[in-house]
Each structure stands twice: as structure tokens, then as C-alpha cells.
Amino acid sequence: MSKKVFSKVFLSGVQPSGKPHIGNYFGAMKQFVDLQNEHEGYVFIADYHALHSLRNPKEMNANIKSILLDYLAIGLDPEKVTFFKQSDVSEHTELAWIFDTVTTMPFLMRAHAFKDAQAKNKEIDVGTFNYPVLMAADILMYGPDMVPVGADQKQHVEIARDIAEKFNNVYGQGDQIFKLPEPMILKDMAIVPGTDGRKMSKSYNNTIPLFAEYEEIKKCVMSIVTDSSGGIPQNVYAIHKLFRSEDELKKIYEEKSGKYKELKEMLVEDIEKFIAPLREKRKEFEKDIPGALAILKAGGEKAKKIAGAKMEEVREKIGVNVY
Ligand code: ADP
Ligand code: TRP
After folding, report:
1. Do 274 and 216 fall within a single domain?
2. Residue 1 lies in a domain
3. SS3 for 220?
4. What is the pTM of this model?
5. Distance between CA atoms of residues 159 and 155, nearest Å
6. Distance, CA 171 to ligand 2 centroid (Å)?
7. What is the pLDDT of residues 227-272, one digit of tens each?
8. Which ligand is nearest to the CA of 137?
9. Which residue, by CA, sits nearest to atom 4 of ligand 1?
């Protein structure tokens, strides 16, 4: 007998790093909307995280507003989910500092993101090195059971788990001060491929934006890289299966084997059917930006109360609470 469980908590953050694409949507964003009806949820805009790559204040400001509208448009409901901005809850950075003091450098040096930066011989700022620690603070502050993210964030959630364990060992005296979180990755959606067949990513220039207008969708789809074998264009199919059942698609792709242009045109129409209503909703929210900002601000106030209470407990545990 299946019974709905409402006792679980989910949390996730998203960087305001530009227009979201369908990889972000199917890999992460959609899950928040699906989960909000069944579970208590926290979703936030990770603006402080984004600082490691975004140093243009105008762009930062615009991106925050833009992602706020994106989330409202996909149906995130602030009545159900605590939806806020990381920088409105200064407790996150405070907790990150405390976690810094129980986290070793060799441990953080094993993080993929750090190793990638090192391999590229980048001048690595401390914020990039410390990125997983702030993320651990974001997560552990609210005690979620699950953290819905794309596969590339799995290691970060594991690091948060290790930091929770370490902190509990050092200061818990048998209590579990921080709950150990689990990453939640939908198997089929873990890596949505881009128009060049690699993982869809803003940094690869291979995306289909989630709120693209018809002409833009067309341009993106027509640019999908296909081989010259004349059979089934794998890169087209891999994206198409997000929008239509595989049973249907297999038949269509067999019938139209080799007809790349026709298959692409069909994909354009399927994506348009899916995106058009989202685009319209976003335009509605765009008409009232102060209203949208008020929602975000109220979410921040709610989150700050919860984070404030957690920090009281943490300060008590580490011994700095003398009054
Ligand atoms: P990008 O690589 O485009 O910069 P982000 O790093 O901003 O994407 O990722 C935001 C969220 O979307 C994360 O949870 C991430 O794991 C997820 N995500 C990003 N790209 C994909 C993809 N191609 N497939 C599935 N999930 C993705
Ligand atoms: N690092 C995540 C990303 O780039 C964003 C993020 C920040 C996050 N804090 C988080 C995700 C906490 C989940 C939980 O996508």
C-alpha cells in the first residue's frame, strides 16, 4: 500500500549565472516543482556562490531578478516552498566560516571543481576553493533529507555530508547537530546533452534556453550536430526524448531514418509546444517585478528565522554563547 510521506525536507540552490536551459530544467528545476506538493522545501538563489565567476554588479542584479521570474514561471509556489536569496540570510556565510575550521585543505583539494581549475592552471581564488564549504552551510542549515541536483553536483553534496559528520563528531557529544543529506539525481535526466552532444552547459555554448522564443528554438535545434551516417541522428533523438515518449519516438525515427531536417523540424514543434506556456507565464510575472521581489524578500525573512535558530544551537555547541 502506498502512502504519501510529507515528513521529508528537500533543499536546492541555483546560481544566478544566466538564462537557464532545458538541461537545468530537467536536471534540477523541474524536480523542485514536482517535490513541492509532497514535501517541505527550500529553494534559493545562490548569489554569493555566483560571485566566484560573476563580478559585474549590474549583471548580478539583473540575473537575480531574471532567475526569480524563471522560477515563478515554472510553477514554484512560494506558499509551499521557502524561496529566498542566499545573501539575505547572512547565517549561511557565518556557518561556512565555522565549517572552515573543521575542514582540512587536503579534503577540499580532492573536489572536482578545484582540480579542474588547477589543471587549467587558473589563479584560484579562495572562494572557488571554499565553494563546497559554503554549499555545505546552505544545505546543513535546514536539515534536508534530499538535495535534488544534476549529476555534476553529487560530489558537493557528499562533501556536505562529510562536513556534517565531522562537525557532529567534534561538537555533537552524541547528538546529531546536522542531519546527513543525500543527493537526489533522476537517473534518466542526470545529464541532458547539448546541441553538440556534450553535456548541455552555459559554458559550452550548446544550450536550448528554457524560455526561448520560437525563432531561437529553431536556431538551436537546426544547429544540433549530426553525423553523416544517414541513420538515426543520435544527438537529435537524445533531446527529443525529453519531450515525447520513446515508444512514439522510436517509430517516428525509424520511419524518417536519414531525414534529419524533418526530424529536427518536428523537434522544434515539440519544444515550442512545451515552452510556449512557460514563456507566457514568465511574461505575466515580468509585468510586476516589485511583486516578485516582495515574494523573494518574504522568503528570505522566513529562512532567516530558521537559520537564526539553528545558529543559536551551533553557537551554544561551539561554546561562544556566553550570555
Ligand atoms: P551550467 O552547466 O549550464 O552552468 P549550472 O552549473 O548552473 O549549469 O547548474 C544548475 C543546476 O542544473 C545544477 O543542479 C546542475 O547539476 C543542473 N544541470 C546543469 N546542466 C545540466 C545538464 N546538462 N543535465 C542535467 N542537469 C544539469
Ligand atoms: N553549486 C550549485 C550549482 O552550481 C548551486 C548551489 C549552491 C546548491 N548551494 C547549493 C545546490 C545547495 C544545492 C544545494 O548548481
Report:
1. yes
2. no
3. helix
4. 0.90
5. 6
6. 26
7. 777 678 889 999 999 999 999 999 999 998 888 999 999 999 999 9
8. 2
9. 202
